[in-house]
């Protein structure tokens, strides 16, 4: 139940539903491309997105996806701590272009999750839809990952 108070006055009580997780991929600016890096932290995106700085993923490559909303880690959080780390109770189920991808996930900073994902070897070249489902909730539609 929620009551909003201001200067001693309160609203009538109302109920709000809270989800344990609401996973979402971060995106490069206003683009549809997921914020991702190669294992050496070079930008992973179409070469045209950041010319000279970004390159596509390769089939079989382990990449790092950066996301939010995957819920609490097993170890819990340190209240007020400027750094956080924790393992996820379970790994999300992810696909690239409809092909299942191996993935492991961890909290690496307050609110920031790192997904280590292996690009499936049979994924098509070009822009591929990227989706992860965690505890019954899917990431947003329309996010892309480029494979070359």
Describe the model.
The protein has about 150 residues and is mainly β. The chain has strands at about 5, 10, 25, 35-40, 60-70, 85, 95, 100, 105-110, 110-120, 125-135, 135-140, 145. The chain is elongated and about 60 Å long. About 25% of the residues are buried. The mean pLDDT is about 95.
| Uncertain segments | none
Question: Main beta sheet: strand number and arrangement?
Answer: 6 strands, antiparallel
Q: What is the share of helical residues?
A: under 10%
Q: Tally the helices: what do you get?
A: 0
Q: What is the tally of beta strands?
A: 13
Structural class of the helices, strands and pairings? mainly beta
Alpha-carbon distance between the termini? 50 Å
Mean pLDDT: 94
What is the succession of H and E elements?
A: EEEEEEEEEEEEE
Radius of gyration: 18 Å
Q: Characterize the overall form.
A: elongated
Which percent band covers the strand fraction?
A: 35-45%
Features:
148 residues; 5-stranded antiparallel sheet; 0% helix; 36% strand; mainly beta; single chain
